[in-house]
Amino acid sequence: MATKIEKNQAIDVLVEEIKATNVLYLADTSGMTAESTSSLRRACHKSGIRMKVVKNSLLQKAMERIEGKDYSGVIPSLKGQTSVLFADKGNAPAKLIKDFRKKEDSKPLLKSAWIDEAVFIGDDQLVMLSKLKGKEELIGEIIGLLQSPMKNVLSGLQGSGGQKIAGLVKTLQERAQA
């Protein structure tokens, strides 16, 4: 049995781990064989995801100690065995779980996820979460969308219409000076 000091130390460690990320997945790994659990841990490690089996009561206390972030939406899913997946990308754990279940097992099951303050409850959210776009992907798409009209304007300026537009710009400048 862990002492109160040991429990507080475990909670402090969890607080730091939770504070260090904006992506938490809570998964049910109960019933998985030792071999399957080891495979899951290796897959997580290869993908840059940290996996930790935790006591629900300690995880809840850690979440409640963090100021400025509301984890109350995922707390009801703290039942049974819980493994926490800490990640940098919101869709990485979902993709990993989906791929893992294709090869290995029907587990782990997604209990809930907390991504940048958004809460997702239930294993039925897994497919949607695996399709979430990361910040870098969204920025890339926005830049692409912004560049597209600019490229059209530039190609129009460089083509035969460019002379007409240049003439129009010159006329507008002359009128503004008059």
Write up this protein.
This protein has 178 residues and is an alpha+beta fold. It folds into 2 domains: 4-132, 2-Layer Sandwich (Alpha-Beta Plaits), CATH 3.30.70; 136-177. Helices cover 54% and strands 16% of the residues. It contains 7 helices and 5 strands. It has helices spanning 4-19, 34-46, 56-65, 92-103, 126-130, 135-158, 161-177, and strands at residues 23-28, 50-54, 82-87, 109-115, 118-121. It has a 5-stranded antiparallel β-sheet. A hairpin with a 2-residue loop joins strand 4 (109-115) and strand 5. Helix 1 (4-19) packs across helix 3 (56-65) and helix 6 packs across helix 7 (161-177). It is elongated, with a radius of gyration of 25 Å. The N and C termini lie far apart (89 Å). The model has no long low-confidence stretch (mean pLDDT 86).
Q: What does the secondary structure layout of this molecule look like, with pairings?
A:
Blueprint: H1 4-19, E1 23-28, H2 34-46, E2 50-54, H3 56-65, E3 82-87, H4 92-103, E4 109-115, E5 118-121, H5 126-130, H6 135-158, H7 161-177
Antiparallel strand pairs: 1-3, 1-4, 2-3, 4-5
Helix pairs in contact: 1-3, 6-7
Please compute the radius of gyration using only Cα atoms.
25 Å
Q: What's the level 1 CATH class of the largest domain?
A: Alpha Beta
Shape: elongated
CATH superfamily of the largest domain: Ribosomal protein L10, N-terminal RNA-binding domain
Order of helices and strands: HEHEHEHEEHHH
Give the domain tally.
Answer: 2
In total, how many beta strands? 5
Strand content: 15-25%
